[in-house]
Specification:
Elements (H helix, E strand, L loop, with lengths): L1 E3 L19 H4 L4 H10 L18 H4 L37 E3 L2 H5 L12 H6 L13 H14 L3 H14 L1 H10 L1 H8 L3 H7 L1 H4 L6 E4 L6 H7 L7 E5 L16 H12 L8 E7 L5 H4 L14 H19 L4 E4 L4 H11 L4 E4 H21 L8 E4 L3 H18 L3 H4 L3 E5 L2 E2 L25 H8 L3 E4 L9 H10 L4 E4 L11 H7 L5 E4 L6 E3 L2 E3 L2 E2 L6 H10 L7 H13 L3 H5 L10 H18 L12 H8 L10
Parallel strand pairs: 3-5, 4-5, 4-6, 6-7, 8-9, 8-11, 11-12, 12-13, 13-16
Antiparallel strand pairs: 1-2, 9-10, 14-15
The chain binds oxaloacetate ion (OAA) and magnesium ion.
Catalytic activity: oxaloacetate + H(+) = pyruvate + CO2; (S)-malate + NADP(+) = pyruvate + CO2 + NADPH
Organism: Dipteronia dyeriana
Keywords: Metal-binding, NADP, Oxidoreductase
């Protein structure tokens, strides 16, 4: 192990590279030791490399001799170029974190998931990295490793075992994990993501092995900045954070919600190409109101009821402030699976000061709007010709409703206050109508239209006569036979979206939707369903999941150096996704493109989001790249193994 001065990593490895004051390094010949170090020890994806790893000639042997330093070409100052950790500016009475960056070799290289290649280390690498004898003689390709892992994973019958095998691999060999996930995305998405990730969160305490992500609990109040600095990676570009209060449709899972940020960020890399080392999963633990967990001896979180009110707001504020202080203005914070009240409050509070995105409100809205735009091919007319009814008026329901109203307003030039009248929502107390306005939470009020009260969903369907029915209630089995039949009596091609996750909370199954509509429904769901054969015809359900949107959306923000999210970016992301549905997909009845093309889809979404950001003056990476799709593709992380010198 060789310790090197960490300052050599201060240069900006972000994909927004060329706007960085460090971009000159790329073209300059670097001190050889830095070059060697960067090759051996860092995760370099295409387009994100500022240190030119090919130009150096120094060997690892030479690196043993001393510390590497970066020389600032302008000032000539050596070392401590960016005092990211505050060590140089700290006075003697202030504690600092003793960071060390080391080059792994031998046994520790095999135990380092970022660089381990297992049996794929070639003879030369085994020789020069002290691996001889630590591996059996055979050398295999990454392709063979993928084949073997898939074989092993398929041998597990229980989805949770498959999940654990995938998490194990991520901890053992990160590149192989991403290669596996990318090459088998349709098969493995339901394992690392919904529905299996939901079960994993429920049982997180008992399957807990090695900690993943960063845990920030009430105990860390007053020192969140220090906790952030404990994370080993410094160039973070995206954080996914949850407080575990509403995990999918499964409710309050407290600290065990960590499975969600970990899973979402795996998709940021696999689907959107953001480097794994730039992703940081965080769970904020303010307690849980889940009695079962509080009494579970394997529970991993704080054993107390949830903090709320001022105590909650103060912790979150300290967190948001520390994040910006540590990572700068362009760090993307994605809120995930917060309960309704906090989700809306946080988005409103930090939307103007931070680069924040709520996946459940905004990501879901964008993906559903995309599905509706393409569903018009089957149902006919434009969005303005349709009437929308929701079951569920929380984050997803009101988020989608608003984006639909905005899109119709954009298409027709009718003010959004008017277009909202095309959209109706039912919550646990029935149809949201003006007579209930006083008692409604603020995010439901725009949807309180003039109508007599209606309590049952089926009655609301018969009265409102929607062409589109959307389930965002988190409650399974709520689109009953009666409800689907009522939709089918009203419409030749009823559009039915059962969005709640995981599968157990889906408002109805694909089979139910197709059977009860006699094969006429245009159906999509939040969690995946198998194809259904109904009267000799195969129906392929779509997966209306925000996983189509957030990876490309986030990439677009990051690659353009965007500093704030704007609703128009959600609209262009939806349009970009809808534009990726091919005639061949339509011929199969699909309203979403298959996930197997997701990297290409994400590049198109990223390009449109970035273009909109430039247009709105919110992008800081200047000048804008000429071809944004190509640029997005060039920024994407590749999981292929690198050769070690
Ligand atoms: O995670 C998913 O599959 C979609 C999502 O954001 C949620 O249901 O909260
Ligand atoms: Mg979510």
């Amino acid at each position: 192990m060789y310790s090197l001065n960490r300052s050599c990593f201060m240069s900006n490895t972000s994909i927004t590279g060329s706007s960085s004051p460090f971009s000159n390094y790329q073209r300059r010949r670097l001190p050889a030791k830095v070059v060697a170090l960067s090759t051996a020890n860092r995760d370099h994806s295409n387009g994100s490399v500022l240190l030119d790893t090919r130009s150096g000639t120094t060997t690892l042997q030479e690196m043993r001799d001393g510390y590497a330093e970066v020389v600032d070409p302008k000032s000539g100052v050596t070392g401590g170029v960016q005092d990211v950790y505050g060590e140089d500016t700290a006075t003697e009475d202030q504690p600092v974190t003793p960071w060390a960056v080391s080059v792994a070799s031998g046994y520790s290289l095999l135990r380092d998931p970022h660089h381990n290649k297992g049996l794929a280390f070639n003879e030369k690498e085994r020789d020069s990295h002290y691996l001889c004898g630590l591996l059996p003689p055979t050398v295999v390709s990454q392709e063979i490793q993928v084949k073997k892992m898939m074989h092993n994973i398929r041998n597990y019958q229980v989805p949770l075992q498959r999940y654990m095998a995938m998490m194990d691999l991520q901890e053992r060999n990160q590149r192989l994990f991403y290669k596996l996930l990318m090459d088998n995305v349709e098969e493995l998405l339901p394992i690392v993501y919904t529905p299996t990730v939901g079960e994993a969160c429920q049982k997180y305490g008992s399957i807990f092995n090695r900690p993943q992500g960063l845990f920030i609990s009430l105990k860390e109040k007053g020192k969140i900045l220090e906790v952030l600095r404990n994370w080993p990676e410094k160039n973070i570009q995206v954080i996914v954070v949850t407080d575990g209060e509403r995990i999918l449709g499964l409710g309050d899972l407290g600290c065990q919600g960590m499975g969600i940020p970990v899973g979402k960020l795996s998709l940021y890399t696999a689907l959107g190409g953001v480097r794994p080392s730039a992703c940081l999963p965080i769970t904020i633990d303010v307690g849980t109101n889940n009695e079962e967990l509080l009494n579970d001896e394997f529970y991993i979180g704080l054993r107390q009821k949830r903090a709320n009110g001022q105590e909650y707001a103060e912790l979150l504020h300290e967190f948001m402030t520390a994040v910006k202080q540590n990572y700068g203005e362009k760090i993307l914070v994605q809120f995930e699976d917060f309960a309704n009240h906090n989700a809306f409050n946080l988005l409103e509070k930090y939307g103007t000061t931070h680069l924040v995105f709520n996946d459940d409100i905004q990501g879901t809205a964008s993906v559903v709007l995309a599905g509706l735009i393409s569903a018009m091919k089957f149902a006919g007319g434009s969005l303005a010709d349709h009437t929308f009814l929701f079951l569920g008026a929380g984050e997803a329901g009101t988020g989608i409703a608003e984006l639909i109203a905005l899109e119709i307003s954009k298409q027709t030039n009718i003010p959004v206050e008017e277009t909202r009248k095309k959209v109706w929502l039912v919550d646990s107390k029935g149809l949201i109508v003006s007579s209930r306005a006083e008692s409604l939470q603020h995010f439901k009020r725009p949807w309180a239209h003039e109508h007599e009260p209606v309590t049952e969903l089926v009655d609301a369907v018969n009265k409102i006569k929607p062409t589109v029915l959307i389930g965002t209630s988190g409650q399974g089995k709520t689109f009953t036979k009666e409800v689907v039949e009522a939709m089918s009596a009203l419409n030749e091609k009823p559009i039915i979206l059962a969005l709640s996750n995981p599968t157990s909370q889906s408002e109805c199954t694909a089979e139910e939707a197709y059977t009860w509509s006699q094969g006429r429904a245009i159906f999509a769901s939040g969690s995946p369903f198998e194809s259904v054969e109904y009267e000799g015809k195969v129906h392929v359900p779509g997966q209306a999941n925000n996983a189509y949107i957030f990876p490309g959306f986030g990439l677009g923000l990051i690659m353009s150096g965007t500093i704030r999210v704007h609703d128009d970016m959600l609209l262009v992301a939806a349009e970009a996704l809808a534009a990726q549905v091919s005639q061949e997909n339509f011929d199969k009845g699909l309203i979403y493109p298959p996930f197997k093309n997701i990297r290409k889809i994400s590049a198109h979404i990223a390009a449109k989001v970035a273009a909109k950001s430039y247009e709105l003056g919110l992008a800081t990476r200047l000048p804008p790249p000429k071809d944004l799709v190509k640029y997005a593709e060039s920024c994407m992380y590749s999981p292929s193994y690198r050769t070690y010198r």
